[in-house]
UniProtKB/TrEMBL annotation:
Belongs to the paraoxonase family. It comes from the Eukaryota. The keyword Plastid does not apply. Pfam families: Arylesterase. Glycans are attached at N387. This is Uncharacterized protein. Coiled coil: none annotated. Residues 1-86 are annotated as: Disordered. The keyword Amino-acid biosynthesis does not apply. SUPFAM superfamilies: Calcium-dependent phosphotriesterase (SSF63829). It comes from Lunasporangiospora selenospora. GO terms for molecular function: arylesterase activity; metal ion binding. InterPro entries: 6-blade_b-propeller_TolB-like, Arylesterase, Serum_paraoxonase/arylesterase. Keywords: Calcium, Disulfide bond, Glycoprotein, Hydrolase, Metal-binding.
């Protein structure tokens, strides 16, 4: 038994130790006391925790789970951000891989299977000296000729690129400056282009691309009207704007705006009548390729995912699919054929129209007005074809093309100062001048030699340039022995006199 008198000094020493801990300094003795006191207090806390857990285990589990959830909130957000960035990086890497494979396959395809067409440059040398630059406007992408008014309608928008660093490029300030539709008098050699006034239309977000004309006589007034169809790449979405032109005031009066989910980066439009039209979709509408990386991969890899859409005055529908980068579209003077340029296939595809392209009959509805197109022939041009222009008098097709795809793509992105331009004319032969074809396949007993259809078209070279006078021509229109060229990357038109016979 210990003497009670000896316990009193011990309690007093414990009290002095506690007060020493509260007023502890940095001495070694005080550190030792603090450690022992903290150990003792932690032991007491553990005992209390054990007793409380034995009394109410469910409450302790709930509190601990709440604490864990609160602690894991920040890491979970970080994990979500990491997963999102990882998925973006993965999509970019896949797009670049597809593009690289496409470039390799395409280069091998062109080099070993179908080499580029030999351009008859000797036929175009004399034309070079008869050309001059005119109409200094930014990015003239498309040209339509009005024989009635003897003027040219030109869609203009700044589509150039400028270099901001060694490796990366960005578009110019086209988002801040709207484009416009210009008219150019064709009777004067150096006439200045005049920008049309848009009446009844908010031109705050107007970026025109492909255009088309349709002339008709008004039923009420009997006056001749030029209706202009314009593809507009606005920030709200792609649409087709329809205007009526007044030559007296040089104005375009707004008629109608057509938009649809089937319009996916539309490139060109051709009017069938004053309401109906066809347009080409340059890219695909698949959700996997809707991002900018997917569309770049689609274009470089040469995926055949383009389409042609028909608008019958009330609704839109796809009439052609699985096209390889369809750029231009045009219609024959008799409205019986539609021409579509396939950029990567280097061909112009010919389709026969149904009753949809013929003059509209009152009360015509349903299946008769579906705009169906029936494939007729493929005209191999040998270059990457762009926009098309049809001479309304002869029916000849004038094709702007690009001899080198790699140079054109680098020029489009700003890495090359210029890119070659090439224009060909596709003449439609009369039946007595059809060129017969004979298959080179040998005639076997079980496999007779196939019969090939005669050639109904003839391709002739008209113009070639290395890009000094006009770079990467996107359109070539013909008017009275003159060839008028435009380019999305140039800031002028080029007008040439075709004094030579071809």
């Amino acid at each position: 038994m210990t003497d009670p008198s000896e316990q009193t000094p011990l309690r007093s020493r414990v009290k002095t130790r506690k007060t020493t801990v509260e007023d502890a300094s940095d001495s070694d003795d005080h550190k030792h006391v603090a450690t022992s006191t903290a150990t003792a207090s932690s032991a007491k806390d553990q005992a209390k925790a054990a007793s409380s857990s034995s009394k109410s285990p469910s409450s302790s589990n709930t509190e601990s789970s709440d604490k864990v959830t609160g602690k894991d909130k920040i890491p979970r957000r970080q994990q979500q951000q990491q997963r999102k960035s990882h998925s973006q990086f993965k999509s970019i890497a896949i797009s670049l891989l597809i593009a690289s494979l496409g470039v390799l396959l395409k280069s091998g395809y062109e080099k070993f299977l179908f080499p580029g067409r030999d351009i008859a440059i000797q036929q175009t040398v004399g034309i070079q000296g008869n050309c001059y630059q005119t109409a200094f406007i930014p990015g003239p992408a498309d040209i339509e000729i009005s024989d009635k008014e003897e003027i040219a309608f030109v869609s203009s928008d700044d589509r150039s690129w400028k270099k901001t660093s060694r490796f990366f490029h960005r578009p110019s300030m086209k988002t801040l400056t709207n484009g416009g539709i210009y008219t150019l008098s064709l009777n004067e050699k150096n006439s200045k282009p005049r920008q049309t006034d848009l009446k009844g239309y908010d031109a705050d977000d107007f970026h025109p691309a492909g255009i088309s004309l349709f002339g008709f006589r008004d039923d009420d007034t009997g006056a001749w009207t030029e209706r202009v169809f314009v593809i507009n790449h606005s920030h709200r979405g792609d649409s087709v704007e329809i205007f009526d032109y007044s030559a007296e005031t040089n104005t375009l009066t707004f008629v109608k705006s057509v938009s649809s989910k089937l319009f996916v980066t539309p490139r060109d439009v051709v009017a069938v009548d004053k309401e109906r039209f066809y347009l080409t979709n340059h890219n695909a509408s698949q959700p996997a390729l809707e991002s900018k990386y997917g569309r770049v991969a689609e274009e470089i890899a040469g995926l055949a995912l383009g389409s042609v859409v028909y608008y019958n005055g009330k609704e839109t529908r796809k009439v052609l699919e699985s096209l390889s980068n369809p750029y231009g579209i045009a219609i024959s003077p008799d409205a019986k054929q539609i021409y579509v340029s396939s950029f990567l296939d280097k061909t112009v595809r010919v389709y026969n129209t149904t009753t949809a392209a013929l003059p509209k009959v009152e009360g015509q509805e349903g299946e008769e007005d579906q705009g169906e197109l029936i494939h007729d022939a493929d005209i191999w041009v040998g270059n990457h074809v762009d926009n098309l222009s049809v001479d309304r008098h002869t029916g000849d097709i004038y094709v702007a093309s690009h001899p080198s795809y790699s140079t054109y793509l680098r020029h489009k992105l700003g890495y090359e100062p210029q890119s070659p331009s090439h224009v060909v004319k596709i003449e439609k032969l009369s039946p007595e001048n059809y060129i017969p074809q004979e298959s080179s396949q040998p005639d076997y007993y079980f496999f007779p030699k196939p019969e090939l259809p005669p050639i109904k078209w003839e391709v002739k070279d008209l113009f070639y340039s290395n890009g000094e006078d006009i770079s990467a021509s996107s359109v070539a229109a013909f008017w009275k022995n003159d060839l008028i060229l435009g380019s999305t990357s140039s800031h002028h038109l080029l007008r040439c006199s075709l004094s030579l016979e071809h």
